[in-house]
Amino acid sequence: MEILKIENLNVTFNGFNVLNNISFSLSQGDFLNIVGPNGSGKTTLVEVLTKLVKPSSGTITLNTNEIGYLHQKLQTKKNFPITVKEVILSAMKKPSKQSNEEILKWLELMDIRHTINQNMAVLSGGQQQRVFLIRALINDPKLLILDEPTSALDPEFREGFYLFLHQYQKHNNLTIINVTHDLSDTLRKDSKVLYIDKTIKFFGPSNEFNAFEHGGHQHV
Amino acid sequence: MFDFLQYEMIQNGLFITLIIGFSAALLSPFLVLNEQALIADGLAHVSFTGLALGIILVDEPLLISMPFAAILAVLVKYLSQNKNINGDASLGIISTVSLAVGLIIIHKSSGFNRSIEGMLVGDIWTVTKTEILIAVMVFLIIVTFIVSFYKKLLLMTYDFKYAKFSGIKTSLLSYTLAVITAIIITIGVKTIGTLLITAFVIFPVLIGSRFKKGFKMTLVIGSLFSIIAVFWGIVLANELDIPAGSNIVIIYAIILLVLIVLQKFIKGGGYRD
What we know:
The complex is a heterodimer.
Chain A (H helix, E strand, L loop, with lengths): L1 E12 L2 E12 L3 E5 L6 H8 L7 E6 L4 E4 L13 H6 L9 H11 L15 H13 L5 E5 L7 H18 L2 E5 L5 H4 L3 E6 L1 E7 H10 L5
Parallel strand pairs in A: 3-7, 3-8, 5-6, 6-7
Antiparallel strand pairs in A: 1-2, 1-4, 8-9
Chain B lengths: L7 H25 L5 H20 L4 H21 L4 H22 L7 H6 L7 H30 L1 H6 L4 H22 L5 H13 L5 H26 L3 H22 L8
Helix pairs in contact in B: 1-6, 1-8, 1-9, 1-10, 2-3, 2-4, 2-8, 2-9, 3-4, 3-8, 6-8, 9-10, 9-11, 10-11
């Protein structure tokens, strides 16, 4: 089942083309990695999908309203008083008496159960990122959008993060769109790659992207 | 020590200051943690001019100064969101221009018989029944607003981008927050004064957040300490024969200082890191 279809998408800021004629589609259960150089429009593309940025032209057909989102540069300010539980609870669409149990179950899964009542600011970067991932998944989305979720974290955490995502995705038939700078081995398994630099340079399975990278030819 | 509380004038002053202190404490985290601490200061300057206009034009100055401050609060928000002016700078422009206009109005008005000092430091002992009624109504509006939109306001304060993604009408909520802040600040300027009302917005969250118990508890603890600061500020001011508004601010500062010192020297307890 097709979950997302983008046709002839253009985004212009102050007369500059940020995204030019972007078209691609995804099926339910796809894992798409969006890669490209700095300033290539990766974040703009996901911000169009999350309705934070309005496109100048083109059509986007999203066959679900259930979207989870983990945006870039998330870090709790040192003096901001908010607990892990409050962060997750504030994103829950239908909080109930069972919410506490549900949050604990998720924290257990992420191996940070003990942090439930701790302030976010005292958690490590990796622990905070796990909380933000829980926040993105807590409403059981059909599409998960991640914008460089591991960019400021060490490689060991990164591998664990993506291994979890792959397992979770297969188990729940979740569609994932992941913006990344570093296409690690974990990300290359069973995934699609969209390489953009304002326009699409490559879109296809990750095993074909290896040839594209080494051969330098375009496959659109 | 408490004998003076039997006088109606004192009771009215204490009551309205508690109402203003509690209201400002409820708004405090949503403003200060959103880097809008100076909004109270800027809006206090705006209210000064509104109050000057109100005193000249009508019997009940708040009826002019409240809508005046509310309109300018919307203007500040509009400028900071829609034009290429930094939020603090737009607040600075509007508050200083407004204060300048207020001072000119006072200078040119022959019928203006109130001292500028009185408007700068306020006067809690001359509050009217109408002012108390308005303060109570505004307090109820603030409580209703925060209870109704708590989750959305929290998300907006903590992570604005995620709040927008979640479909929260962030612009509408920001404007509403600015307007009700302007209104309670205006009432505060009339009683506590232009120079001191900012403390009522800034201190509660700074005190509440020292306990590191999360956002909701910061709100609750900040509000409780505000009530303590206002009550003891007024009682001790009477004992020591010093201005009540100033003494409340000193009490706030002492509470914060004690908590900072305790946090430095006492491990454990509520100060968990």
